[in-house]
Amino acid sequence: MRIFAVAVWTFMMLATSYALFHISFQVDALENQLGSLNHEIRSEQESLHVLSAEWAFLTRPDRLEQLVRDVLSGFGSTKPGQLATFDEIPRPLPEGQLPPGPAAEAANPNVLKAKARRSE
Amino acid sequence: MTPRMNRAPCEAALNRLARPCAADRRPNFECPTVRSDGVFRVAMETGRTRLLITGAMMALAFIAVAVRTADVSVFSTREDAGIARAIPSAQPMKTERADIVDRNGVVVATSLQTVSLYADPRRVIDPAEAVRGLVSVFPDMDPIDMMGRITTERSFVWIRRQLTPEQQFAVNRLGLPGFEFQSEESRVYPHGNLLSHVIGFTDIDNNGISAIEKSFDRRLKDDVDPLRLSVDVRIQHMVREELAKATKEFEAIGGTAIVMQAKTGEVLSMVSLPDFDPNKPAQVTDEARFNRATLGVYELGSVFKIFNTAMALEYGVTTMRGGYDASQPIKVGRFQINDFHGENRYLSVPEIFLYSSNIGSAKMALEVGANAQRDFLDRLGLLNQVGLELPERGQPMFPETWRPVNVMTISYGHGISVSPMNLTSAVSATVNGGWSVRPTLLKGDGTPQDARRVMSAETSHAMRQLMRALVEKGTGGKAEAPGYLVGGKTGTAEKLSVAGGYNRSSRISSFVAAFPMQSPEYVVYVLLDEPKGNKSTYGFATGGWVAAPVVSKIISRMAPLVGMRPFDPETPAIRQDLALEPTQAEKKLAAYRPE
Prior knowledge:
- The complex is a heterodimer of chains A (120) and B (595).
- By secondary structure, chain A is an all-alpha fold.
- Chain A contains 4 helices and no strands.
- The N and C termini of chain A lie far apart (120 Å).
- In chain B, a hairpin with a 5-residue loop joins strand 14 (487-496) and strand 15 (502-515).
């Protein structure tokens, strides 16, 4: 009985100390990782900052305009006539309906009949 | 009492205990106890009690530790958690000076890390060799001056501020003892010249010394959030490009252009030419640094007839159907008021505006009177420094005592000098329904700042009709941008010559416009300083010839950009809103001068 108790206690002690040290080392490792991650974040922020300045420099309106002139022939600034609202864009017709015109007339025999009557 | 005599009870006791003892397999400690004498037993009892107490105390101690452990690990509060935070945390990056961005968030000024080179002259071993090496990296460096600087007794001298990474690498490779790098922040303006007079620049120690950098110096140093301007870099680019073209074409010594939101006072663009590159503050000349839009005050000429006509209508001295005799020049002492586009007849109020009659305007102003005129111009903000967030603001100049001759000349914009920003803001108030709004370079929430009513909505409406008519069929035709219902007024003023009097060949030619005129959103002002006429303008260098086309180009380029659709001027609602009633001048002329 006593041996059993001693064994249990010893085991528990070992287990606890193992767990304790294990966790402690894990925390150390995580802290290191966090530290280096934060360091990385910091340097990423710095490069983002530099890159945002460079982006602003590279997207200067005069430079973009020059690039468009050099590379995209046929492009230019927006003309007043090129503006439209969504209401002005034709909406798609419901399924199965044909746009008005010869095709619709051909598909609808009534129209043909009506036409025939009119021509009589 | 002998041991023998006690044996029997002990045997009996042993017999009673034999079974449990055997079953227990432990060495039987109780038997000797039973056998021992009283003293021994007492000692054992004491020991046992002590053991019990010690055990209990140990147990208590362990329980205390356990409870504390549970408390710390399970029920820990936030304050306790802070103790373990010695790791560098990921804070948002902070620069010495906050960024400045345009109204759409485009970075227009930022701070970047750069390195600067300094020396500790006491540690420099071979100055001659050091200077040779440095000159090979910085060819523009003066070797004799540098030699003097690194052979002093001081312990710190700057060698060169803000090195490029390549220069830093080259200096590092020289391996000179006594030379060190220091990390510094330097201000960078990615757009170069584009916003020079809006943003200004900083000195080498990052203190703002002009424009926004100066007026918001504290704010930029204290707050990390970017400062958002009302300026749109795209519109600024268009305006600058068109203005620069016109300045070059008409060989003007300078020019300025402003685009303002009529209803909020937000400045979308402010250009003053010549300008400078704020990245190279050492090369900025005084001429380039001068902000013609806000610091320069000029006699702006006929554009003032906008305010004169509005004033006469507002005070009720005349109506849109009224008129004045403009057939004879006005003589005041040895001074004579003439009309540039002389009609030499009776003119209706709209005609006085459309033909830009100085004589008619002067008569109108005389009827209003000096005090009322002064009061009206004051309400429009034309007698005070403009309330813009810039340190460079010119004080308008006008006569101390406002005599009748001043009343007359001021009616057509002479004898009073205001900055172009003053004028733009006053025109905004005239066309936006009569609300004076404070001009601003910061992006707001779309609601005007401290708007005050300065004229009635009816007067503002009449002025919109007049300004539209001037572009539709008057002297401002070149400002028209099809579909955008431009309205405006030309202005040409001769500059005062150094010798005294006006100089006929050096002018300030300008055009102020608003669009779309049925409900103006934007006011555009373009001014050219001393333009010269050329073949394309038949030698004219007046506002209608040199500045109006710039206005037209600016409007037709910026309107699609801000998403404004062209309007059909023939729409009944627009027609009715902007059409002038036919003028009655002919009839009155007959009544006035019977022939």
